[in-house]
Structures are given as C-alpha cells and as structure tokens.
Amino acid sequence: MILTVLQDGHPVLRQVAKAITPSYPNLSQLIKDMWSTMYRCDGIGLAAPQVGHSVRLFVIDLDVYKDEHPELKGFKKVFINPQLEIVGAQKVRLSEGCLSLPGVFKKVKRPAKIHISYQNEAFEEVHETYEGFASRVIQHEYDHLEGRLFIDYQGFIGKLVDRVLKVLRGR
Asked: Are 9 and 98 in contact (CB under 8 A)?
C-alpha cells in the first residue's frame, strides 16, 4: 500500500520518535508499505515519521547509485531503533532534498564519517561504520527520527530551530 508522505509543517515531523519492539503492531506491513511508498516517490530513503508513525525506523536503498559508487551495490537496509555517533571532525557540504519538502534542495554540511548501531528486521543488533554518500543518507533519515529536517541546518533560523529543539529535548 502506498502511504501518504507528510509535508513540512506537519507536527509528527518535529517529534522525537519512540523506540519500538518486535511486537509493534503490523511492523512487517509498515516496512513493506514504506518500501513501496519510497519507490513510488522515487526516493532513496524514507523514515517512519514521514508517513505518520513517530517510531525509530527508516529504510534506505542506495543500489541505484552503484555505478557511481560501487560500495553501494546491494545497499538496501531497514534500520530499527538506530543510535548514531559521529566519527572524526571532517565535514562535507553537499546538496540534499527530501520527500517531505518536494522540490527543495539545499547544501548541508554533515560529518563525513559515522558509526551506527541499530536492529535489523529480525531485531538483531548491527554495528556499522559509514562514510561518503551512505553516511549522508543515513544522517538525513536519522534526523527525521530526531524531529529535524535538513532545512534546519540552513543559516541563522536553521541553527536557532536546532538549538530550540535540543533545549526542549533536554540536551
């Protein structure tokens, strides 16, 4: 089933998503529907909050970039309850877009390398380190779980919004 992708301004997009357990209702169907929705929208990643579920889940398929980035061949993953850590101080600025902000593209400066711990669909613990394009896409989708959009990194207003969100979350 194709789900509705929420647009900027919907309150679910600004909530910090909650962790889930294997007993989360209809989890397999939600994941299947997220894949279908992402492909229908020509996306490469989709987070559960974007389809109205404020839970810590996102899907990414980067195989389409395998010719430009051979390391992305077969990269199709489900990330459940992820926790992200920045590795090193190097940052890279690249253009990003988002299914929740159609037609909007902005350059965003993000850490070049990350380590992510998450559970796969079988709720097995996974620990991986990424850099390059995969790192960027994972960070973008992870931000959705933290109630952030890529436009929050833009200029004074973006920094102000990010700071307010951190204060509200007690960080």
From this structure: no
